[in-house]
Amino acid sequence: MSTKMTIMTMPIERLENPHPHPAFAKVCAALDALHIDLGDQCRVVDRLRALVERGPRKHILVIEGPGGVGKTRSIDVANGTIQSMEVAALPVNICRVRCTGTTNASVLGELICLDLRVPPSGLGNPARLASYIQIQMPKKGRQLLIVDNSHFLDQEGRSGEGVLRILGSVIASGAASVALVGRENTSAIGKRLKEVVAQTMEVVTVEPLKYENGQDLDAIKAFLGLLADGLKPALAGSGVELKLHTDDMAKRFWAGAWGVEGLMITLVLETLRAVLEGPALQTSSYLIGKDDFAEAWRVFAASETPLTFNPFSRHDAPTLGEIEQARARVKQKAEEQNSVVLPKAPRGPGARIWS
């Protein structure tokens, strides 16, 4: 996995405070300017580049994975919003839309027209809207359409058919290549599009950092180390010191965020908020330790991970064996939810014979 630090301009989501501590305001600004190249994200940009180089040949690219693993950030790298040290931005004009809730044909059409900077036409009439968009996109020089949060695309009834008509029209007409980006079920709409207009579909999966053996800790420590280094200038003069790139912290953070990079950043951000905006520091130098992260984990991550204990409250870090046990519980729960329980035939006197 690549772990180089570069500059980004896309702010991360965070809780807002109208009167932040001066040092915390600097921390937020530093995070807005921080980007750490990760292998899966770079691979997404490479596959988007390959999609564009093929040209609009009825090929669909689906990028899917859980929240917080950098799918949207990959798009930022592709369109040049983030400057990466590993991969270059795509040398094409991109039409990029982001769904924020259930998105039917009219909403999708409005989002596309807004990015193209043309007045919407045909809202409520998917056929007319699809024809309008396929004409406007080449006029505006767009060669790639990326739909972020595609798991919000409506796939039911007439609204769902309208979404397919718009995307299918772009693909079939050769107006632009299409990439769908979203959560794990995004490939479902990709498959429907493939059945209608496409010849092939490629699925790229973006995953959290893995921790399956001791060697994996190196990548986790590298990520945490670059994160701490990127925040060091912002914390200068605050009396607060952040040290994350140790085996102990790597194990705690991976288990606490279940490998999701965005959740790791949230734990660091909210812990720094609590320390900087809490009671005045009693010493001129304060090293943030595992106990400081415990409350942030309880509030922001406890419901997002399968752990049955707070990884920052214990004296010892979670072991790989405990993590494997948590994985096994997740797998067992999934199997139980997917299993079909058949009714049992009654037994004893008077029982009927079931055919």
From TrEMBL:
Highest rank taxon of the organism: Bacteria
Keywords: ATP-binding, Nucleotide-binding
Domain named ORC1/DEAH AAA+ ATPase: residues: 58-184
InterPro entries assigned: AAA_22, P-loop_NTPase
Pfam family, one: AAA_22
Stored Gene3D superfamilies: P-loop containing nucleotide triphosphate hydrolases
Name of the protein in question: ATP-binding protein
Organism: Bradyrhizobium agreste
